[in-house]
Amino acid sequence: MSLMNTSDAQSSLLSIDNIYLLIGFIVMFLVVKTLQDKAHPKRLTTALFWFLFGSVFIFGDASIALIGERNTYLWIGINVVIIALLAGMNMVSMGNYDMPCERAKTEDANRFGNKLFVPAVLIPIVTVICTIILSEIQLGDFYLFDQEHVTLSALTLACTIALLVSWKITKGSPLQALSESRRLVDSIGWAAILPQMLAMLGGVFIVANTGTAIQDLVTLFISPDNRFMLVVLYCVGMALFTMIMGNAFAAFPVMTAGIALPFLIQGHGADPAPLVAIGMYSGYCGTLMTPMAANFNIVPAALLDLKDKYQVIKVQIPTAITLLVINIFLMYGVVF
Amino acid sequence: MTELNLLPLSGIAVIVIGFALRFNPLLVVTSAGLVTGFAVGIDFVDLIVTFGEKFMNSRQLASFLLILPVIAILERYGLQQRAKAWVAGIKGATTSRILSMYFVVRECSAALGLINLAGQAQTVRPLLAPMAIGAAANQYGDLPQDVKDMIGAHAAACDNIAVFFGEDIFIAFGAVLLMDAFLKENGIAGIEPLHIGLWAIPTAIAALIVHLFRLARFEAKIRAEIARCQQQQSEEEQTPSNTNSALKEESL
User: Fold this and answer.
1) What percent of chain A has pLDDT over 90?
2) For A290, B90, B156, B185, which has the most beta carbons within 10 A of its beta carbon?
3) What is the DSSP letter of A287?
4) Is residue B48 classed as helix, strand or coil in its secondary structure?
5) Is A190 on the interface with B (CB under 8 A)?
6) In Å, what is the CA distance from B95 to each residue of B91, B159, B213, B216?
7) CA gyration radius for chain B?
8) Is A194 in Cβ contact with B69 (below 8 Å)?
9) CA distance B138 to B130
10) Is residue A286 within 8 Å of A243, Cβ to Cβ?
11) Interatomic CA distance for residues B198 and B209, integer angstroms
């Protein structure tokens, strides 16, 4: 797998390795900015958290060439545990950012008008156009885009273009844009790393054959020949599991490895792209119905001073259940 | 029929308990990985190596970091203020029209990746809920607290539903990349995040239709709720306190 990546890297300009390096440089820039933020309440530990994360992007590929795969994976694995401990001990926090006051921003907003939306809208548009049109463009022997990761290459190009356009519109430099992004990254905080951690957990589940255990459990209740019941089980399972965990991302690897992959994809030849897309959305139906997803369902009730803190959930339930039913029939209709 | 082996499921128990006890999710997920590894007897060093390998091979999940500088610079120059001014400029509105309009704009902008443009704290509390309540107050006069709460809850629900079912269309969103990483990890090749994003569109449209339908009927519900509250009040035979109008002023 990694051998393939390395050989691809030599034949395309926007290779995935270069994109990872770029991400690494962005993160490291944020680490330096965090260290310069003298009033930051958790300056050193926050910087360490992002440094450990960024080092995987900057040094990962070089390290494989230098000390081998196993040693590289070992130090990254140790990094991951330290990252989790730093976050778990609440040692990662927001810093200080010199944002202009609300009035100044409103003045700017009036000055630039709807032009401010242009760069933001450019990102998805350019990404889609590039993915469709430019994916096979070659310059001499080089592909412009990494053939294994066309969408990501296109996204990188789109972001670069959007950054240049916003530079032109606002006169704020790309360097300023980078410093400003520390505010956003810090407000996302540890949650920025959660998807990657969940992918990792999914990987561990695969090694541990967790899917097989769920698979065995499923066959106790449902015949593997019954396509419709399997679809129902996957969708409802995603929703219920998401309600328990409060997070569809966490439910996804488990339910998909346990039900969708063995029974629907391998067993009945279901089309993976719509299967996982609709499966994830079934999980979101669960998110709408659970107090475990506190940020979305309980916090707003508090923000709005509602007497009943479950009222937002109650309002969401009819839409969530209707969409779950639609998802089940949609999935059954399109994946086979 | 093989014997049912439930040990590999121990990590799931850790996740359920960890999330229920509100530990930090990164810690919960890592612990679940460790417990699963121990339960099925993977050597400790091998387990850490597996952690590193899987973490490194899902680095594409961090690609949203590329977008943040653009959004950050736009916010620095008033993107949110511009968005607020735009929504506030919508005229001649009833409660359900305001909520429907917001729903459409929010879902479309989320599909374009502008997830942080609005939100419960940034727009629902300061802007959407007061506007929706204000529109109903214009129509019906002073509103009972129950009705205000109901409209507020609907405003919050609009934001959640619109952003949830819009965001998966955007290919750089974590969920899409997580699905992509999962498929690649499981040896299913030839699927780009773009394909997964495209398949999010039917459900996104269904969410739009279902919720706009419910919002269209919401006006009648407000009227019924006001009638119910008034009846309740007259049964209690008490003069309404002045707090209602004071609260209205505040929320407007």
Assistant:
1) 44
2) B156
3) H
4) helix
5) yes
6) 12, 15, 14, 10
7) 24
8) no
9) 12
10) yes
11) 18
Residue whose tokens read 């440094």 = A51
What is d(CA A317, CA A286) in angstroms, rounded to the nearest whole number? 9
Q: What is the pLDDT of residues A227-272, one digit of tens each?
A: 999 999 999 999 998 998 888 888 898 899 889 999 999 999 999 9
Phi, psi torsion values for A142, nearest 5 degrees: -95, 135
Q: Which residue has the tokens 């459900």?
A: B203
Contact predicate A158/A130, CB 8 Å = yes
B87 neighbourhood in chain A, CB within 8 Å = none
Nearest neighbour of A284 by CB, restricted to B73, B149, B165: B165
List Cβ<8 Å contacts ≥24 apart for B103-107.
B103/B158, B103/B161, B103/B162, B103/B208, B103/B211, B103/B212, B103/B215, B104/B162, B104/B208, B104/B212, B106/B158, B106/B159, B106/B162, B106/B163, B106/B166, B107/B162, B107/B163, B107/B165, B107/B166, B107/B204, B107/B207, B107/B208
> Amino acid identity of B222?
I
Find the radius of gyration of the CA atoms of chain A: 23
Helix axes B243-251, B129-140, angle to 10 degrees: 130
Chain-chain contact of B55 with A280 (C-beta, under 8 angstroms): no
Q: Other CB atoms closer than 10 Å to residue A140's CB: what's the count?
A: 5
Q: Which residues pair with A14 in a beta bridge?
A: A145
The pLDDT tens digits for B128-173 are 888 898 888 888 888 899 999 999 999 999 999 999 999 888 876 7
Mean of pLDDT values over A140-150: 73
Is a pLDDT exceeding 70 seen at residue A131? yes
Residues 270-329 of A with CB under 8 A from B: 272-274, 276-278, 280-281, 284, 287-288, 292, 295-297, 299-301, 303-308, 311-312, 314-316, 318-319, 322-323, 326-327
Contacts with B190 from chain A: Cβ below 8 Å: none
Residues with Cβ within 8 Å of residue B156, at least 6 apart in sequence? A300, A301, A303, A304, A312, A315, B120, B124, B129
Instruction: Name the 3-class secondary structure at A137.
Output: coil
Query: Which of these, A98, A176, A162, lies nearest to A125 by C-alpha position?
Result: A162
- At residue A179 the predicted structure's pLDDT band, cuts being 50, 70 and 90, is confident
Which residues fall within 8 angstroms of residue A275, CB to CB, at 6 or more apart? Answer: A260, A264, A265, A331, A335
